[in-house]
Structure formats: structure tokens, C-alpha cells
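Support reply, case 0932

Customer input (verbatim):
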Amino acid sequence: MKFSIKDKGIGIYLGAAAFILSLVTVILYATAYNSVSSSLALLIVGMIVLIGTVVAVFFIKTHWLNLGFLVAAMLFGIALVTGLNVQLDGIGYVIAGLNPYSTISTYVSSAIIGIITLIVTVVASFFGVNKSEE
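Our regenerated output:
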């Protein structure tokens, strides 16, 4: 078994970049004030699916692996929506001037990076993971 990245497509590189972004998102969300454990669990499962897809490319040569990127993107999207649901009161308090921005700054940072991760993951699903698929 040869581990060569010469025959890998652009989707694998975007998937690896999305994994790094998802790792940053998980770290920031875990440290955010008033974070939800179910959203954190969805982010972690999405991250595991993403790295599993990237690693599986080296063992399995099929175009169906692109679906792993879509599953990870769906998990990231669900996690972002459920995480936002809990933060709405905090965001309202900041807008009303009752709390300082520092109470939601970590969540906002994790949400922005999470949205970028979601976009990169969806874009990665459209590109082939092997050069023969592009």
C-alpha cells in the first residue's frame, strides 16, 4: 500500500483545511460561555467524520467518499444552529447594553470560524478526492 498524495485531488486538501478549521472551532466553542454540550458533541462527531474521510481516501479509491464531506457539513450546520439558539439571550443582552461584548466574543469567533468550516467542507465535497475524478 502506497501513501502518495501525488494522485490526490483538490478535495482532499480542502478537507484537511476544513479539519484544521473544525479543530479551532471545537476549541473555541468549548471555551465559550454558556455553550451547549449537544452542539459540542455534534462538532466533535463532524470533526471525526471529516478526518475519517480524509484518512479513508488513502485506503479506498472511490468517489463516494465525497459524501463524508457532506455528512460533516450537515453536522456542522446543525451544531451551529443549536449553539446559536442558546446564545440568543446573551446576544440580546449585549445589543441592549446590559452585558459587555466579552461575554459572547468567544462564541462569535467560534461561529464565524464554524461558518467558514462549513463552507470549505461543502466546497470540498464538490471536488474529487482523487485526480482521476476531477
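We compared this against your earlier run and they match. Two observations from our side: The chain has a mean pLDDT of 86. The CA atoms of residues 89 and 122 lie 30 Å apart. Please reopen the case if you see a mismatch on your end.
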